[in-house]
What we know:
Layout: H1 2-19, E1 23-26, E2 30-36, E3 45-46, E4 54-57, E5 64-70, E6 74-77, E7 81-84, E8 90-101, H2 104-110, H3 114-128, H4 137-140, H5 150-166, E9 172-183, H6 186-257, H7 259-274, H8 295-298, H9 302-307
Antiparallel strand pairs: 1-4, 2-3, 2-5, 6-8, 7-8, 8-9
Amino acid sequence: MKKSTFMILGVLILLVLVVYPVAYQVRFNEMAVVTTFGKTDESSVKNADGKSPGLYWRWPWPIQEVHKFDARVRVIDDRLEQQDTRDKQVVILQAFVTWRIADPLAFYRSLRNEVMAERFLRDRLRTARAEIGNFDFDDLTNVDPAQLKLAHAEQAILNRMKAELADQATGVQLETVGIKRIVLPEEITKSVFKRMRTTRQRLAQKARSEGEALAKSIRAQATSDEERILAFADRKAREIRAEGDQAAAEYYKSFAQNEDFAVFIRKMEALEATLSNNTTFLLDTHIAPFDLLEPDKQTQSPKDEKSTAPKN
């Protein structure tokens, strides 16, 4: 049992040693260029479209050699460098570029490997950053986002790099260029902060002025509404008072015919309204209309009261 296991293991190792020099694998995120005695052509490119990864065969070295390249997008960061703007201001800027290998054959023939490609692109990025000189300082740093033109500056740098690479068959495809950091030199930081404070104060004063104007408008509208409502209420009250006076005049005509009876009726109505609930009161019967509750008053009619009144 042990001998058969060792034999199988030995066969596998021997198979690997035999196959390894004449086979190679290309992953889905890789592209490969095979050179024959240092020369290559279109047919030696494998998985250039990203749709044909797998196991491939080759002649052993030194007849053929395989050069693999990563097909994914990569990022190159540049270092912080001083840059002048169009309005003669100075900024310290750091940019980056994203790129990928689009043509592995051209890439191998021109740049050979990723290290050389990054060095080449970093030099081009440093040259293309001169496009910042076409923008003012306020276009790069501004308290108002609507005034910023960072995207325009990044696009200008990208366009210049693409124009420079268009004349060279490098096999490199540029994706994006971005401005990673903008640092102000120490000698102008104070003046920039002062200008920013001035801008903030101007915006604050503008907001206060607009608020005061709006408050005055609201107060004026409220005063107008108040006067209109009071005028309406006063007019309505006069109308109601006039209607009440007119209705009361009719009653006064009837009451004028028998004033004592009218007083008696009003007292009874007051008593009915006051004693409508089951309530106990301690009252002075000498105060109208409770004087009707006196025993001697209950047996007298208004005519009797008038007849028994003392004569002078």
